[in-house]
Amino acid sequence: MSETTTQAAGPATPTHCPYCALQCGMSLRGGPEAVEVVERPDFPVNQGALCGKGRTAPALLSSRVRLTEPLVRRPATGRLEPATWEEALGTVAAGLRRTRTEYGPDAVGVFGGGGLTNEKAYALGKFARVVLGTSQIDYNGRFCMSSAAAAHQRAFGLDRGLPFPLEDIPRTGCVILVGSNLVETMPPALRYLTELRDNGGTLIVVDPRRTRTAEQADLHLAPRPGTDLALALGLLHLVVAEGRTDEDFIASRTNGWSEARAAAMAHWPELVERITGVGVPQLREAVGMFCGAESGMVLTARGPEQHSKGTDTVSAWINLCLATGRAGRPLSGYGCLTGQGNGQGGREHGQKADQLPGYRKIDDPAAREHVARVWGVDPQTLPGPGRSAYELLDALGGDVKSLLLMGSNPVVSAPRAGHVEERLRSLDFLAVADVVLSETAALADVVLPVTQWAEETGTTTSLEGRVLLRRQAVAAPPGVRSDLEVLGGLAALLGHEKGFPADPEEVFEELRRASAGGPADYSGITYRRIAQEDGVFWPCPEEGIGDHPGTPRLFLEQFATPDGRARFVAVAHRAAAEEADEAYPVLLTTGRVVSQYQSGAQTRRVDELNAAAPGPFVELHPLLAERLGAVEGEPLAVVSRRGRAVGPARISAGIRPDTVFMPFHWPGEGRVNSVTNPALDPTSRMPEFKVCAVRVERAHGA
Ligand SMILES: Nc1nc2c(c(=O)[nH]1)N[C@H]1C(S)=C(S)[C@@H](COP(=O)(O)OP(=O)(O)OC[C@H]3O[C@@H](n4cnc5c(=O)[nH]c(N)nc54)[C@H](O)[C@@H]3O)O[C@H]1N2
Ligand SMILES: Nc1nc2c(c(=O)[nH]1)N[C@H]1C(S)=C(S)[C@@H](COP(=O)(O)OP(=O)(O)OC[C@H]3O[C@@H](n4cnc5c(=O)[nH]c(N)nc54)[C@H](O)[C@@H]3O)O[C@H]1N2
Ligand code: SF4
Ligand SMILES: [Mo]
Predict the structure, then answer these.
(1) C-alpha to C-alpha distance for 236 and 203, rounded to whole angstroms
(2) Is residue 351 located within the same domain as residue 497?
(3) Claim to verify: residue 183 and residue 136 sit in the same structural domain
(4) Would you say residue 702 has pLDDT above 60?
(5) Does some domain include residue 618?
(6) Which of 14, 45, 115, 463 has the fewest beta carbons under 10 Å from its own?
(7) 495 C-alpha vs ligand 3 centroid, how far in Å?
(8) Which domain holds residue 30?
(9) For ligand 1, what atom is nearest to the CA of residue 178?
(10) What are the pocket residues of ligand 1 if the criterion is a CB atom closer than 6 Å to any ligand atom?
(11) Residues 496 and 352 in one domain
């Protein structure tokens, strides 16, 4: 097996950002230690615009901050020390094999990431099922958009985050943006909201904080965290009461209205006001705006989704769209703003516990048959569904004894992170493939240094469902290998010489076949096509010689359910897993800031970003600050039943007085996930990152 040594390509290579799901186009020029970002105005989604993270991404290619040799923990010193690839891969293969021999295949776990390309996600899922024979695989996307994905499946029979391209947003009449701080999380996409308003459309933002995004809105609703379900039901109640339903649409395109209607009618506006803290006049104003326009969209992000009732909450927003005929029609619909670079593709090709490539279900006999044939194995040998991400992390050291982790940093990003860290430490064997020594990699027995976005080619599927080619633009430093090479090398050592090629295009060709006929059908997409076009929207089946054009807009004729009708789901409001009480009287919610990405493993290593966002903070209302006697900048401790996190006070009148906010990008004392609640949604298994009960204390000298 060879190191990745491909030479740098021509003067400026068009490619895409390593970070979020917007997958902004950019071009790169120059050599490995001095890569320059060049604007790429021809790519329609961002038209050349980049946020600070995208603009500074090449800083991480420098050998000063990244890993360039494998590390193995030496028994003599207990420390991670440099090793050859042969020794490192041999140690991983031996560690995984030992666990399997002693405890059986399901004692070996695999954890992936929504930042991995389609090829890597596919190879990782295949590696788990075919080489390790384990059912115990899941990934960080479970923490991201899984509630919206589950609600999409229930209502429409298919989960593609946005059923329409972003370019449709400025032409709709009204957008309700629920729990998305897009101005900080996808800055170049702000243009779509600005154009919407320039065209006479209206914007409603639902967020407990007056964020920079909420400042753009015509109407800002600020519900108590964890009450979006009641809010959406209250709006639907008013829609019915005011006679604003679209009866023709309901009759011709949907099922289940009478039950959903009855459930909504139990949520009186006055009751909803009491639960959410949003006044009845504001609820009425929102209904007037949404129903007064000819068309409308509801877009959700993590705010309403990361809850133990995230799936039902999204269902309630979808019900609102269906009842008003704002779905399955041009310029109308419900969409979820997916988060990670390959958050969409990463959930389609088999790194999810219950899934096979092409968004197939692992317990569907026909799906098993099809994929087993592509993989050249007996369908009987494929394991069944495994555990969800938090449940898997919680089982480490219990019946899961060894873990291979690729593309996530759960020590910082998992809920109840203190417990998760302890579980990781209790493993017999941990192997981590990463580009930097993340907080999780630092706990590993073996760390495998891998190539990065600009050093390798692969495909990602953006939040629009657009499959893109992210091209290699520079040579990788000697000493690192790609994730595909790592999986191929391990497979060979574990007795599978074939089936795990290092060439991404070869993997994609197999993925095409594995996805053919599935819900996320990529069989009509080739590297050649997406190199020439601005990406292709799935589903794109292979149709002989006349290429299928791809599907930018879904559901215009019918939904993807067996009878073609969308399904209402009758849902009722319920409380958060943990409500404020005397001992923990304040609600904590969490999220992001513009200059840091996720666990911060990458962006905390970029000087410019660190200068802009050096550490966490506790955002709180002046009234709460006054009650605590706290002043701007003084350290505050946020304490829950699970742990505590400290950060300087940031006093703002834009947040609800009953709520504090902390971003989650930092480890150590400022790690807010020490505090968060791992209560899971029963359907999506999403943890409750966005609400738990805390007390806030002044932390002098802490
Ligand atoms: N700068 C930056 N950009 C990113 C990322 C990053 O880490 N940093 N990560 C990417 C990824 S993976 C993702 S998933 C996306 C996430 O993108 P967003 O969902 O926009 O990000 P968050 O900040 O997690 O949450 C959005 C908003 O939800 C609000 N919120 C909190 N609780 C509630 C609630 O109960 N109800 C409602 N309605 N709102 C609530 C918060 O106040 C916050 O403003 O961003 C992507 N882009
Ligand atoms: N409190 C709170 N916690 C949250 C959230 C929240 O809103 N609040 N949001 C949740 C959400 S939406 C998400 S998506 C998760 C994300 O949280 P994480 O899963 O921790 O995401 P990242 O920090 O992006 O971790 C990716 C890791 O993989 C490495 N990496 C990057 N590219 C590659 C690659 O190609 N190959 C390999 N092998 N490694 C690579 C990076 O260096 C980094 O160490 O956090 C969740 N946690
Ligand atoms: S918005 Fe997202 S994709 Fe675009 S440059 Fe920023 S991080 Fe990269
Ligand atoms: Mo995410």
Answers:
(1) 18
(2) yes
(3) no
(4) no
(5) yes
(6) 14
(7) 40
(8) 5-61
(9) 38
(10) 20, 144, 178-182, 184-186, 206-209, 211, 225-226, 228, 301-304, 339-340, 589, 591-592, 594, 596-598, 661, 690-691
(11) yes
Structure tokens at 448: 């495998």
- Look at residue 10 in the predicted model and tell me its pLDDT: 53
Any atom of ligand 2 within 6 Å of the Cβ of 407: yes
Q: Is the separation of the CB atoms in 143 and 689 below 8 Å?
A: yes
Residues 485 and 388 in one domain: yes
- We report the CATH number of the domain holding residue 595 as 2.40.40.20
Q: How high is the pLDDT of residue 162?
A: 98
513 located within any domain: no
Q: Are the CB atoms for 289 and 204 separated by under 8 Å?
A: yes
Whether 546 maps to a domain, the answer reads no
Residue 547 has pLDDT above 90, yes or no: no
Distance (Å, whole) CA 355 – CA 94: 27
- pLDDT of residue 1 exceeding 80, the answer is no
Which atom in ligand 3 lies closest to the alpha carbon of residue 16?
Answer: 3
Which one of 185, 186, 412, 599 would you pick to mutate in the ligand 1 pocket, going by the greatest count of ligand atoms within 8 A of its CB? 185
The two counts, helices (H) then strands (E), for the chain are: 22, 30
Question: Measured at the alpha carbon of residue 415, what is the angle toward residues 409 and 417, in degrees to the nearest 5?
Answer: 65
* CA pair distance 306, 313, nearest whole angstrom: 10
399/386 Cα distance (integer angstroms)? 13
Task: Tell me if residue 586 falls in helix, strand or coil.
Answer: strand
What mean pLDDT do residues 389-406 have? 98
Q: Residue 495 Cα, ligand 2 centroid: separation in angstroms?
A: 31
Average pLDDT rounded to a whole number, residues 396-404: 98
Listed in sequence order, the residues at least 6 apart from 65 whose beta carbon sits closer than 8 Å to its beta carbon are 59, 436, 605
**Total count of residues recorded for the chain:** 702
Same domain, 178 and 250: yes
Angle at which helix 280-292 crosses helix 269-276, to 10 degrees, equals 110
- Ion ligand 4 — residues with CB < 5 Å: 144, 339
Q: What percent of the chain has pLDDT over 70?
A: 98
CATH number at residue 55: 2.20.25.90
Same domain, 177 and 126: no
Token output for 532: 């020439």
pLDDT in tens, 676-691: 999 999 999 999 999 9
Give me the DSSP letters along 384-450. Answer: -----HHHHHHHBTTTB-EEEEES--HHHHSSSHHHHHHHHHT-SEEEEEESS--TTGGG-SEEEEB
